[in-house]
Amino acid sequence: MGFQKNFPLRHFSCFLAARGKNPRPKTMANKDQTDTNRMEKIVSLCKRKGFIFQSAEIYGGLNGCWDYGPLGAEVKRNLKDLWWRKNVLERDDILGLDGSILTHQAVLSASGHVGGFSDPMCDCLLTKARLRADQIEPQSGIAYHFTGASHEESGWSVDRAYSVLLNQPNQDENKARKTAREFYAQFLTDKQIPAKKLILVGESTSEEKEVTHYNPENGSLLTEPRDFELMFKTQMGASADDNDPNATAYLRPETAQSIFVQYKNVMDSNRVKLPFGIAQIGKAFRNEINPRNFTFRSREFEQMEIEYFCRPEDGLRLTDEWLANRLAFYDEIGLKKEKLHVLDIPDGERAHYSQKTYDIEYDFPFGQQELEGVAYRGDYDLGKHKEHSGKPLEYFDEQTKERFIPHVVEPSAGCDRTILALICEAFDEEDLTKEGGKQDIRTVMRFKPTIAPIKAAILPLLKNKPELVEKAREVKNLLQPFMNVFYDETAAIGRRYRRQDEVGTPFCIAIDFETMGLEEGKEDLKDTVTIRHRDSMKQERVAISELLPWLLERIH
Ligand code: GAP
After folding, report:
1. Over 90: is that where the pLDDT of 244 sits?
2. Which of 13, 93, 141, 483 is the most buried (most CB within 10 A)?
């Protein structure tokens, strides 16, 4: 397969995620390949320039939720428009859908999400931090066990087993005792008694090998894993009783289910034939335990999903075709090939109904992580909805007179994750320091013009020359109906170029004295503008009459 050459198929010994319906192996970020400093700069630029803000920041922030600022909103719109154009508008075999976010509980019971879409979680007995049980690295070492603690002077005591693991060779055993005292101190009624005054009771030790019930951060014992429901549940209707199962609805955890549930309506109302797809872009919600890595794992996020329905014999071939198609999309939007990795998920680690699943991962500054899954899901989803709804969901083939449940291939991409990848890819600090000169670092967001939030900045050379300002405003009015442009007349032109570099504007258009035909010997440059290219910083002149087609050709 062609893509294997460019995108090495790699498999990692992974951690099996316990997402009931669709267990996906998750790779842990490779700490050796992370760049915290770079990530911090990216997060800071996103806030400073108005790409992404934390939701409800002035109230301390809503964990796992993000707001896209003016520039972020443009990037998001550009990405979604491009995805929609490539996958719906430019194809004859894919139709769009915009389903409701509030989802009937019967839909999610049939799909297996109700009762199945959960993560096994355990809590640190010392700090109360909540950890994904299936993502804890096995550890070995000496465990120190205690049966309780007491305080002689006050006569206080607690009877409760607790253990601490020391997982480093030659670690001071007093560290385990100190941790245990801190644990028992939580039960003290008299908060004036310091933890170090407690006497530990019933100490014993054991050698532990490859165990996962201790917190890797501090060695404290963890609780037994419990399933943590990942869906946001709500009650519908004014008179809804909290316990009425008929009033229960969910915020959808994926956009896919409304596609399956509406597949027959779409088919009947549009007279489509296999193979055909239904595409949807929309919000999904998951009550993630540990939202992290900026927007990467959020509780509210957007997905861009296609369910591509086909005959059973075409499923595997189409899965490979979709993988190649999706990789070409990432290439087109500017993610470097060498930073994309395809994982061919092996037998036993895929969902039981899936004969093939590829994960497309990207090298984020915090490690290699999933961007998209391309999964061959067989007839599982439509079969389940047929079974639970009792409605006929078969496809009738007019030619062969066969009636069957179509199979489905699902390319499922994260919109926010793709934006994060685009931002990480674009961020660059170019060293322009001249020999012996003052350090000069140029921050440039090297977005592809299709993705860039501002396509062109219009800059009159001087703001105190009314004729330059008037001409610049004319140019702005010419371009504004067709693209997002930015007008700026403040500061020196060099400074204004740098400001645009920082937000990724690919073209700066300067209106100067040549434009006005006022430069002696350069009268032929009248009604032309200087275009300064963001990446090369080279300049060229383009006639105003040619400007619109010149830009349109480059930004689409
Ligand atoms: N319909 C299949 C499905 O939802 P998934 O792997 O759970 O599969 C698909 O999700 C994509 O949605 C992921 O590859 C990722 O890009 C995005 N995604 C999933 N959970 C996310 C989260 N908590 N935050 C941001 N994006 C997420």
Report:
1. no
2. 141
